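Dear Dr. H.,

I hope your travels went smoothly. While you were away I took the liberty of generating a structure for the chain from your last submission, since the lab meeting agenda had it listed for discussion. I wanted you to have the full record in hand beforehand rather than looking at slides cold. The sequence, exactly as received, is reproduced here:
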Amino acid sequence: MAANRGLLNIYIDGSCAPKNPGGTPAWGCLFLRNGLPIDTLAGLAGAEASEKATNNLAEYMAFINALKETKRRGWNDDHITIFTDSQLLHGQLELGWKVKSPNLIGIHKKAAELRASFPTLKVEKIGREKNKVAHRVARAAYFEAKFPRRAR
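The corresponding predicted structure, in token form, is as follows:
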């Protein structure tokens, strides 16, 4: 089965707008498989205007939802790299940093358990300038939630 393994790069981002914390948390991701863009995915990360609505929560939801979609598509055995511009997410999931925020303890546990179910997965920190598509997808999810389209 190793011969069927693909190379899956996933770019993720989270946003909490118009303010952080307390805005509307949204996440987005971009999937590239074997060097080809496959799809984008986005959504809301939680309730708006709560103390739990933060960029960090949205980043974690991007990570979790990207891995759920990876499983749904049957790419579990691919060589997976998740690219994030979140230093906190990278530090907590890749470098073993402690999770100090009570609001992130449960979601970190869920993310770590999901991550452990993939045989080859690494998380890499990148600059924001290299994460523009995932950022735009997350922002689009925010705008679609705040300003829904009217039926014609």
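Two observations you may find useful: The chain is about 35% helix and 25% strand. The two ends are 49 Å apart (CA to CA).

With kind regards,
E. W.
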